[in-house]
Design a protein that fits this description.
This protein is α/β, with parallel strands linked by helices and 533 residues long. The protein has 3 domains: 276 residues, Aldolase class I (TIM Barrel, Alpha-Beta Barrel), CATH 3.20.20; 72 residues, no CATH class; 132 residues, Alpha-isopropylmalate synthase LeuA, regulatory domain (Double Stranded RNA Binding Domain, 2-Layer Sandwich), CATH 3.30.160.270. It is built from 17 helices and 16 strands.
Length: 533
């Protein structure tokens, strides 16, 4: 870790406002309040709640937030400068910002002459008055005022003198912070830093912040460059939510600032909860966590190649830029047709299975693994199937049931627009000579087979009655072969205490599903046996 800097950086979160402009992101007022408290607990300094008056949801949020206390974070209401040719005291939108009753108000104003003349349809001088008078009005109301200079970098590149004059107007109005916004996300790193250095000298003692978008994939890099150039406030969103391709991602910015650059942060004591924090926000947003996300993604510290896994086992930092535990993540070893004995040894240990790396059975296991992967199995995303395979090969696990046959029938009733699937399963269980015959119905063939198998197990394996099918994914592995393609099935099962993924592959989607379903039951039986022993 670099030498700790004396410079403290303030983190300003705008997930609840700018983040909700992202496609597929929507929060109720109650959700926003829960998230605001979650961000406060994590240690963010500012939480922007929304734009009072812009929509009923934000109005409701600020209404219910009035009675809530935050441990550390300051809640901010967001809005714009006054309308052109209207006194600040007469602008209803500015009054709504005051009535939101937040300690902080953030307003944006125009920095780009194009926006002043072609969007606002006003004069350049009137725009300066709008900025200065709006900031002063909010300061007179006792608010901490953050001024967001919208499209600042585009405006500066077009007309630097005017862009700087808009900042002068905000400063003269009494702004507590001036934040430079790369609203279109098109500024490159070197020009961004050059402009920042100019503005720093221009604004004097008024502290600077940056607000970056990720249209060129540089949102995080620009935010860090802003800190290096003297910005003491960094704005962004959790998980990079935001319009178009998103805003600068705070789950990448924060660990970079602290671990890589040595800046002081209020949230630094909570860094080991960063991954959980990221996942919690994704859950509230009903978004699937990005496995490839730096620091917090499931794949951030995953090793698939045998050489990499072997080196990571010996010296973790040889293939990891930092200990994953520092951000609440973990090292993962992925087994595939590229795996070697070291990968198998490490992965087995992570799954709670002690193997000898030089075991004589290892060569045969690797051959089996590669054969199955070639057929379409995907063990890197199906740990439970791998767990079962390891027990079968190294620990002598054998099935306690044998499939005699199964049959599925699907019926579509057009008049009632319903689907009915029936599964008939015949199983021979343990030493019982009697074949267990079971029939069940569901809305789909896989669900019907699931119910029929558990019914057939009956009293033999009561522990399987707790297992539920939670998720089901199908992937076609070969293009151009039509219905002759190999189908890969990934299945998530759970028992109320833990969940696990299994896989199957076959030309028949039903057979692939059966394979994944059997592994789900095998996994549960092995775990139950291990717990009892």
């Amino acid at each position: 870790m670099p030498v700790k800097s004396s410079q403290h950086i303030l983190i300003y979160d705008t997930t609840l406002r700018d983040g909700t402009q992202g496609e597929g992101i929507s929060f109720s007022a109650e959700d926003k309040l829960l998230l605001a408290h979650r961000m406060d607990e994590f240690g963010f300094d500012y939480v922007e709640g929304g734009w009072p008056g812009s929509n009923p949801r934000d109005m409701e949020f600020f209404r219910v937030a009035k009675g809530h206390q935050f441990k550390h974070a300051k809640l901010a209401a967001f809005g714009s400068t006054r309308r052109a040719n209207l006194e600040a005291a007469e602008d209803p939108q500015l009054h709504q910002l005051i009535e939101a009753d937040t300690p902080v108000v953030t307003i944006f104003g125009k920095s780009w002459t194009l926006h002043v003349t072609d969007v606002l349809k006003t004069t350049l001088e009137e725009n300066l008055n709008m900025i200065r008078e709006s900031v002063a009005f909010l300061k007179d109301a006792g608010k901490e005022v953050v001024y967001d200079a919208e499209h600042f970098f585009d405006g500066y590149k077009k007309n630097p003198e005017y862009a700087l004059s808009t900042l002068r107007a905000a400063v003269s109005g009494g702004a507590d912070f001036v934040v430079l916004c790369d609203t279109n996300g098109g500024t490159q790193i070197l020009e961004f830093a050059d402009i920042m250095n100019t503005v720093k000298d221009f604004c004097g003692k008024t502290p600077l912040g940056v607000h970056c978008h990720n249209d060129c994939g540089l949102g995080v890099a620009l935010s860090l460059a802003g800190a290096e150039a003297g910005a003491t406030m960094i704005q962004g969103t959790v998980n990079g939510y935001g319009e178009r391709v998103g805003n600068a991602n705070l789950t990448s910015i924060v660990p970079n600032l602290y671990f890589k650059m040595g800046y002081s942060l209020a949230c630094e004591s909570n860094m080991d909860h960063l991954r959980k924090f990221s996942i919690d926000v994704d859950k509230m947003a009903n978004m699937t966590p990005n496995k490839k996300e730096p620091f917090v993604g499931e794949s951030a510290f995953a090793h698939k190649g045998g050489v990499h896994a072997n080196a990571a086992k010996k010296v973790a930092r040889s293939y990891e830029h930092m200990p994953p535990e520092k951000v609440g993540n973990r090292q993962r070893i992925l087994l595939s047709d590229m795996s070697g004995s070291s990968s198998v040894f490490i992965k087995a240990k992570q799954l709670g299975i002690d193997l000898k790396e030089k075991s004589p059975e290892m060569r045969a296991f690797l051959a089996k693994l590669k054969e199955l992967e070639n057929k379409g199995y995907e063990f890197e995303n199906a740990d439970a199937s791998l767990f079962v395979l390891l027990h079968q090969h190294f620990l002598g696990f054998e099935d306690r049931f044998e499939l005699v046959s199964y049959r599925t029938i699907s019926e579509v009733v057009r008049n009632s627009n319903t689907n009915i699937s029936e599964a008939v399963v015949k199983l021979r269980i343990e030493d019982d000579p009697k074949i267990q015959f079971s029939v069940s119905e569901s809305s789909g063939p896989v669900g019907a087979m699931d119910h029929a198998m558990r019914r057939a197990f009956g009293q033999h394996f009561p522990e399987l009655g707790k297992v539920d099918l939670l998720d089901y994914k199908v992937r076609i592995l070969q293009t151009g072969l039509g219905t002759d393609s190999v189908v890969q099935v990934l299945m998530k099962s759970g028992d109320g205490e833990e969940s696990w993924w299994t896989c199957g592959a076959d030309h028949s989607i039903i057979e692939a599903s059966y394979q994944a379903l059997c592994d789900a039951f095998r996994y549960k039986l092995i775990k139950e046996k291990d717990e009892k022993s």
